[in-house]
Write a structure and sequence with these properties.
The structure is a homodimer of 334-residue chains.
Chain A lengths: L4 H8 L3 H9 L6 H14 L5 H8 L4 E6 L7 H14 L3 E6 L4 H13 L4 E4 L13 E4 L10 E3 L1 H14 L4 E6 L5 H13 L5 E6 L7 H6 L4 E4 L2 H13 L9 E5 L13 E4 L2 H16 L8 E3 L2 E3 L27
Parallel strand pairs in A: 1-2, 1-3, 3-4, 5-11, 6-7, 6-8, 8-9, 9-10
Antiparallel strand pairs in A: 10-12
The first copy, chain A, binds a DNA duplex (16 and 16 nucleotides) through helix 2 and helix 4.
Chain lengths: 334, 334
Amino acid sequence: MQPKLKDIARELGVSTATVSNVLSGKGRVSDETRRLVNEKVSELGYRPGGPGRALRTGRSGVLGLVLPDISNPLFPAFAQAIEAAAASSGFGVLIADSHGDPSAQTDAMQRMIQRGADGIVIVPCRGTQVSDLPLAATIIDAASTPGNCVCSDHHGGGRLAVEHLLELGHRKMVFLGQSRRSTVQSDRIDGMQAALSVDARADVVWLEDGLPDFAALARRGATAVIATSDLHALTALTCLQSAGLTVPEDVSVIGFDDLSFSARIAPGLTTLAQDMPEIASAAVAHLMQQLDGAPVPAARIVPMALRIRGSTGPVLKTIPPQDRPIPQQGDLTP
Amino acid sequence: MQPKLKDIARELGVSTATVSNVLSGKGRVSDETRRLVNEKVSELGYRPGGPGRALRTGRSGVLGLVLPDISNPLFPAFAQAIEAAAASSGFGVLIADSHGDPSAQTDAMQRMIQRGADGIVIVPCRGTQVSDLPLAATIIDAASTPGNCVCSDHHGGGRLAVEHLLELGHRKMVFLGQSRRSTVQSDRIDGMQAALSVDARADVVWLEDGLPDFAALARRGATAVIATSDLHALTALTCLQSAGLTVPEDVSVIGFDDLSFSARIAPGLTTLAQDMPEIASAAVAHLMQQLDGAPVPAARIVPMALRIRGSTGPVLKTIPPQDRPIPQQGDLTP
DNA sequence: CTGTTAGCGCATTCAC
DNA sequence: GTGAATGCGCTAACAG
């Protein structure tokens, strides 16, 4: 049995309130009593219990994190960042997965409330609008979503990607998305379109229409692919490689989100990374301000960062792949 | 303000005990009163609040999930499965990340206890031993870890991988691990070794010693690579491809864990998948039994499943890569 | 300045 | 069949 406030008080012959005062540093307590209490506390290894405190103060020190799909590969970094940001504010994190289902999302939020969460960080399902919660909430979605509180500058990320390719001499690109209905993907592609110079062109291809033939796109002149996710960039890269094309010599490839594998493939994947720590701490800070009774702060847009790796390179004078020598690698193992 | 038990009671002119009895279905209540209460409850949208209940019953309906590294790409599937299993038992999930640090792990567990978690599911840091918790706990690690409660049959997975390759005619393989200190990886590689036929050989290579030259390994006769994670298999596969070798014609590649990208690359990655739903529900069930006062159940070992995709194929009569025609892909886009 | 009292929301006695 | 009383662990307001 964990020691309770009452145990400390009884053993010391003082009241529970006195012990509580010592621990919270609030009420005035004599130095002698304070010393005794602190001693006993560390002796018994007392830790104030959550439920009692929550009941009394109306604050649980827990926040809910509602996600549309935990299995999304971007989630680990995100959850980790939120957990870290919350922990540094002394908060715990309760997770829930809505599986992309709006009614499950509403359910999940209800359950977080019921469990006593002080606030909710929510990444909404596509097309869902989160409205009038009886609770502090922070919405993380695309900037163009109404009610959004914190997000990455997806549009700016798209621009950076295209600008990088333009500098390398690319003028014919492919923009690769998964779903037209994703606001984040649309924002990214809009940013790409906006950055195209007058002499550059791009085709937009959606994976929801079926897997495109990347080698054929290259044969028709495209020298670069920008995908709205590293996952799709990886698909493009491996399709190109297994069709005998070389990245980046034949085609440059860029992704988004700097997923776990992106630095570990050959060539390393150039990508636009979200600043997860910044987004997470902004989201948690946003929540804390609401809890402190401040008005809902303005939306915060966090810039994305271009991480250049081996998958992008300058446009080469056109040499048909079959005429080029097969690249050789040094032998590292004796 | 959320409605309280007292609000329902007052509006109906009954006592809070009666309302509580109706909701829990325990004490005897007249059908008429029952109907009235249920009506009022759904009218006001009353939900029993967690903290009050937790304080009274000593059960919070929340379990803690302590992970060594949320950013591990295997985690999403795992967290999702645990969350689903917990939710179907009416439990919430509080997450914590120990960042591989044993003291942070202990801290995290303390905080879960403090927050009132009823039990803990823990994937321990490497080399950590979890001992005598004042709480129900389920440890998920390798089978060879003392105290382990639930895990995949990593050894059997290794065997399945090698058996698959032997059937395809492979006799010279490379086993690729990341860290010698990982019990899971060791178990997997032990299983691989155990399944080698007398005429087959394998070299074990560790990424912690530096990135090997996969093309050179192939030139010296290896026709297959089995990595202890899809992440490392992907590294091998892309290194081979960018060195001009073809998968699976020149070298077959197998990974572990069926990560999110594994089905989306070209060729699709053959892999050994963990049965996450089964592991998660076993872990949660294990916890529930302890909470119900049952003795700690025996450890449960869940089989792994071989998912064959395009990255493994039969050994071909040796044709040097440069003499083979460059593969062509059909054009899907008009 | 110190310590006692009251009550957060709920479920469980036990009288009626 | 129902209701009043009790206390889970803790802290805010109050009396000593």
